[in-house]
Amino acid sequence: TRLSRRARPLARSPRATPGSPERFPSETMADWAALKAEGNDAYKKGEFKAAQAKYTEALTVADLSGADRATLLSNRAQCFVKMGEHAAAVEDCTAALELDSANVKAQFRRAVSREAMGDKKGAIADYRDVLAAQPGQVECRRALMRLDPEAAESASAARARKQRKLSPDEVSALQEAQGEAVRMQRQVQQAKQRAAELARRQRIMSITRSEVSKSAQDASLFQHVGKMFVRVPRATHLKRLDAEKASLDKQQAGLERMTEGLQAKAKAANGALRELADAAGVRIAVPGESA
User: Fold this and answer.
1) DSSP state of 217
2) Can you list the domains of the chain with their CATH numbers?
3) Is 6 left (phi over 0), alpha (psi -120 to 50) or beta?
4) What tens digit of pLDDT does each residue of 45-65 get?
5) Which DSSP string corresponds to 108-152?
């Protein structure tokens, strides 16, 4: 009797279908959270392919809730985004949103991939939905400014008109950022005042030296020493003035470098304050800028 050939097992697909998961050995199916954690660790290391494989393996675990399965799909979609596989990312995000319509991360990641694929209309729709759920999402606002500037500007104006109560965390963050911006601006002003004083002393020094230079070669000049005035030779006086001028020039150069550094820090502090204010949808005074 001719024996029938034993059927060869089907190769496991690298991307499991959420509705009908393929089975892995029981020891790997038992703990989907551990697989998810391994995927997260791989993602943090930049090992996106390995992370995607772990999320895929976790998706094969039976009896996952819809929200958990949506989270895994969204995470795997982010791996696809990083690898430039945007069609796969859109597919996973769509599946995740069907399971959990409140999964904002999946919506945002689908928007990113749709934009990358040239689906402007779909990307705008997703970005708007994310912004409706999270009004402080700065990346969405910037994306809408790129894709639909007029609509984004209208939405921004509407938010500015709308009064809302800030959360304690938002208030605290704004106060801290504003305090830092004010502190840096004050330091810049103090540095400028010191620079102005040094410049005044340099002008006086220049005038004094010019006058001393006009005196006779063998002249003796009065020099203020403590509470007394003593006569010193012209050459000695000029030498002292030159030394003081060199010291002032050195101080001025150092102060200019310090001022440049402070101005850069003040600009960064103002930028951080402005970004927080935009995210909170409020107007706030930025130090050094007119209202």
Assistant:
1) T
2) 26-161 (1.25.40.10), 168-280 (1.10.287.370)
3) beta
4) 999 999 999 999 888 877 778
5) HHHHHHHHHTT-HHHHHHHHHHHHHH-TT-HHHHHHHHHH-HHHH
